[in-house]
Design goal:
Blueprint: E1 2-7, H1 26-36, E2 40-41, H2 51-59, E3 64-65, E4 69-72, H3 79-95, E5 100-105, H4 128-145, E6 149-153, H5 163-171, E7 177-182, H6 183-188, H7 193-200, E8 204-209, E9 211-212, H8 214-223, H9 227-232, E10 236-237, H10 246-256, E11 260-264, H11 275-293, E12 296-297, H12 299-305
Helix pairs in contact: 1-11, 3-4, 7-10, 10-11
Protein name: Inosose dehydratase
InterPro entries: IolE/MocC, IolE/XylAMocC-like, Xyl_isomerase-like_sf, Xyl_isomerase-like_TIM-brl
């Protein structure tokens, strides 16, 4: 099975905490992402929102545009209203030829609140679940009709965080609602990425590869830190620098025929964790683990790594 390896600008500049790398120029991020070996990158707040300008800028650094984060409010609004709210972002992804949207349900989330423990996240009631599932199922179908599928991002501090919540989400929706498998968020939540991968490999349509420092995660629970404090203190790191078994997590995906991107996305303070150093480590470890799991790099990515030109076409 062929894959491509990408990254996220959050290692260079954190959109939720501008004080973490806020003064780092975008060109530095893009140049170093390419230098580390990646051939694609997800969207950050510093990126242009004009499709042609975005594709041209990334292309000048040998990078393709992978996708971008969207925080939904489906607990509070209909699928039709959500589609209208996401329209600018969806149109950008469509114009750039993206196949998935990094999608999270962020109503009531505590992920961006520095003073609220991540343990105090919202939880959906028994009465909420059927309404939510109906809405996201409808939205997934509408988005699939437009050529961009939901890659649902389970996330610390949100209503979909645990294995049980992921199971309920996917059991209650059709194939148009895909799963973004995030190794770091699963381990931080106390779950086993390999078990989720084994159970839901046929629904995984995007991968975020991050590692976890277990001693920091233990302090988060014991001292009731917020999600943002956890990030600042280094709960996350790149593949190869924590406790995640990436071969075990990726093997079920290879066996299920996963094809697509694997994105190194590890929030860290760039003043403590040099972005290029960690990006390079993450790329090398993830590439090796993916190979051991049964994947190989897409030939175009291998050609790019050797310096050969790659074609890019802007969707119209």
């Amino acid at each position: 099975m062929t894959i491509r390896l990408g990254t996220n600008p959050i290692a260079w500049s954190n959109d939720d905490m501008p004080e973490l790398g806020g003064d780092t120029p975008l060109k530095t991020c893009l140049a170093q992402a390419s230098e580390a070996g990646f051939t694609g990158i997800e969207k950050g707040n510093k990126f242009p929102t004009d499709p042609a300008a975005l594709v041209e800028l990334l292309g000048s650094h040998g990078l393709d545009f992978i996708s971008g984060w969207y925080g939904a409010e489906l607990r509070r609004r209909s699928a039709k209203a959500e589609l209208a709210a996401m329209r600018p972002h969806l149109d950008l992804l469509k114009a750039c030829g993206c196949e998935v949207m990094v999608f999270a349900e962020t109503s009531g989330t505590v992920q961006g609140l520095i003073d609220v423990p991540v343990a105090e996240r919202p939880v959906m009631s028994a009465e909420e679940w059927p309404v939510f599932l109906e809405r996201i199922d409808e939205l997934g179908k509408r988005m699939a009709d437009e050529g961009v599928r939901i890659a649902f991002h389970h996330h610390m501090g949100t209503v979909i965080e645990t294995a049980a919540e992921i199971d309920r989400l996917l059991d209650g929706t059709g194939p148009e609602v895909g799963l973004l498998l995030d190794t770091g968020h699963l381990v931080f939540a106390g779950e086993d990425p390999a078990a989720i991968s084994e159970r839901w490999a046929h629904r995984v349509n995007h991968v975020h590869a991050k590692d976890v420092r277990p001693h920091v995660a233990a302090r988060v629970r014991a001292e009731r830190w917020s999600f943002l404090k956890s990030v600042v203190e280094g709960v996350y790191t790149v593949p190869g620098d924590g406790c995640v078994d990436f071969v075990a997590a990726l093997t079920p995906l290879a066996q299920a025929g996963y094809r697509g991107w694997m994105v190194v996305e590890a929030e860290q303070d760039p003043a403590k964790a040099n972005p290029l150093t960690y990006a390079t480590l993450g790329y090398r470890h993830l590439a090796a683990a993916a190979g051991e799991a049964g994947f190989r790099l897409d030939p175009s990515a291998e050609a790019a790594a050797r310096g050969a030109p790659r074609s890019r076409a802007l969707a119209v």
